[in-house]
Amino acid sequence: MRHQFVEINVNSIKMNVLKEGTGPPLLFVHGFPLDHKMWQAQTEYFKKDFTVLAPDLRGFGHSEVTYGTVTMEQHAEDLNTLLNQLNFAEPIIFCGLSMGGYIAWEFWKKFPERLRAFILCDTRPGSDSEEGINNRLKMVDLVLKHGSKSIASSMVPNLISESSQRDQPEIAKSLIETIESTDREGIAASQRGMAERKDYTHMMAEIQVPTLVIVGSEDQLTPPDVMKSIYAQIPFATYLEIPNAGHMAPMEAPCAVNQGIEDFLNSC
Asked: Superkingdom of the source (predicted)?
């Protein structure tokens, strides 16, 4: 199946973005350390009614790498510039998973006028604990010394549920291949950026756009209780829990996720 990619100059880097379909802009922002491919089931489904945009963030996929630290704010600014370069003036629907959610908070804070609706998948608004920061920096050291392959297989049990590992082995294979192909400096830069991200926990009530909160019932990294707290605080929020799915609910249960997103967008 042939996909339409464009390469855009964005804030001193070349950014690769999947752009397909026509209609209102629907932006899919991937998790760490992945790329646009995690959204394949969503972009295929929604391109009939929307202009779907699925970029490879700075340092991931086929986008250029920045050494050092790439903050969540930098990623948000990249997305804003990308939308400007593609001449999207109308407000967008922003769908982010995990790190994509961390970027969503920054995008909302800096560019609220650009948002029509939020879809937040398997993410959290809080900053890292001291232990969390140390674990991120340990991964930075590991991946810089031993390469992306050193972390790929060990990440899978945290990313997908036990049932997905057992019944859908192709998902684990795809995730491992993506992680192994990701530039070690790109992984390190965004991992450092996540370690120093801001805490948005107490700002959720300020989000004034319709918001869909999606979580896999077996998510180990951002469990349902975390996502329920987001849902409880955002004034115009809808909650959707996906049975038997883990952190990568859009890949593990695409039909249920797509139906939930479609129902939400029809109600907006």
From this structure: Bacteria
pLDDT tens column, 32-43: 999 999 999 999
Residue position matching structure tokens 């790329």: 35
The pTM of the full predicted model, rounded to 2 decimals, is 0.97
9-22 residues labelled b (16+ CB within 10 A) or e (exposed)? ebeebebbbbbbbe
What domains are there in the chain, each with its CATH number?
A: 5-267 (3.40.50.1820)
For Cα atoms 11, 65, 153, give the angle at the middle one, nearest 5 degrees. 140
Amino acid at the residue 188 = A
Work out the number of other CB atoms within 10 angstroms of the CB of residue 117: 21
Is the dihedral angle over the CA atoms 68, 124, 200, 96 positive or is it negative? positive
Closest CA to 103 of 178, 197, 203, 26: 197
- DSSP string for residues in 133-192: HHHHHHHHHHHHHH-THHHHHHHHHHHS-HHHHHH-HHHHHHHHHHHHHS-HHHHHHHHH
Residues 86 and 69: their CA atoms lie apart, in Å, by 26
